Amino acid sequence: MTRWLPRREASASPTQQSAPGPAILPDQDLSLGSAVKEQAPCPKTNTPHLDAMDLLEPGLNELSSPAQEPAAATEFVKVIRDENYWPKIRKVIEKGVDADGNRVKLWLDCVICKSPMLRFPLPTFPVRGEHPPELDLITVLFCGHVFHFGCMREWLRACKEGSPDNGPWILSCPGCRQPLLYRACGHSINLTMQSPSRPEEIDAKLPDLRDEGGKIPDRCADCQLIEINQTVEKLARLIWEHGGKDAHSEQERRRREMEYTEQLLRTSTLNYLQWAMGLNRW
Q: E strand or H helix at 34, and its extent?
């Protein structure tokens, strides 16, 4: 009868070398049922402090690092430096991009003094140790050109003084020579003061420009008020001539004249002031 030796009693030959791979223990059960029972546990069940949400969403530490994500394409930014026509500037401020969809920045200087006039978007923090420049007030003319308010005021003053040989110059835009005066009274138009730090609010305070249907009135506000008062005086004279005919005495006639005149002046002046304050005019 052949005698079978237990596996643990069998010894390998001195010259026999073990096959590569994991070592087999002497008492290890190699049956299929044992293999099913001894499946490797799920890594999640061995991880401490996991709840249901950890099984649904990856943790912060499991997200891919920035180094593993594809690098974003370099964004192209177009810088505009040579524009001082407000309708074009306004279009850039409203859209922020050019016709090709590229982001646009405004880096504009005043053409009179060559110093910074408008930056958009305005930097809110130092870049490489440089602080944003302090911008002076600007003005938008009837023709649409933009300058520093102070520079334009000095320009109009120089036009009034003119030269010794030719006398005063016509008050006009230094860029396109558009006349900047009221035809009937000859005074220069009002310069609107605008803040370059809030360029998106400029349009709400600006009258209609020349190329957008705007017009310069015949007279400035002061001369128009004088004209209204002169008209009121004429009406008062008519009242004095005809309104007191039924008065019983000279004293009564003069009292009525003064009362009517004061009422006309108050009404006309108040109406004009309300009109001038509510009207966005040049």
A: helix 32-37
Distances 5 to 11, 14, 18, 273 between C-alpha atoms, Å:
10, 18, 20, 123
Residues in the chain: 282
Pairing of strands 146-148, 77-80: unpaired
Which helix (H) or strand (E) is 53 found in, with range? helix 52-56
Instruction: Report the first-to-last Cα separation within the chain, whole angstroms.
Output: 127
- Residue 205 DSSP label: G
CATH 3.40.50.1820 assigned to domain 77-124+133-212? The reply is no
Closest CA to 191 of 148, 149, 219, 224: 149
List of E strands, the chain:
77-80, 103-109, 116-120, 138-140, 146-148
Tens of pLDDT along the chain (282 residues)?
445 455 544 444 444 444 454 444 555 554 444 444 444 454 444 444 444 444 344 444 444 444 454 444 566 788 999 999 999 999 999 988 877 888 999 999 999 999 999 999 876 655 566 566 689 999 999 999 999 999 999 999 999 998 888 888 999 999 999 999 999 999 999 898 999 988 888 988 899 999 999 999 999 888 887 887 787 777 777 766 665 566 567 777 777 777 777 777 776 676 666 566 656 778
Residue pair 150/137 in contact by the 8 Å Cβ criterion: yes
Domain positions in the chain? 77-124+133-212, 221-278
Task: Give which of 122, 113, 97, 268 is closest to 199, Cα–Cα.
Answer: 122
Q: Cβ contacts of residue 232 below 8 Å, gap of 6+?
A: 261, 264, 265, 268
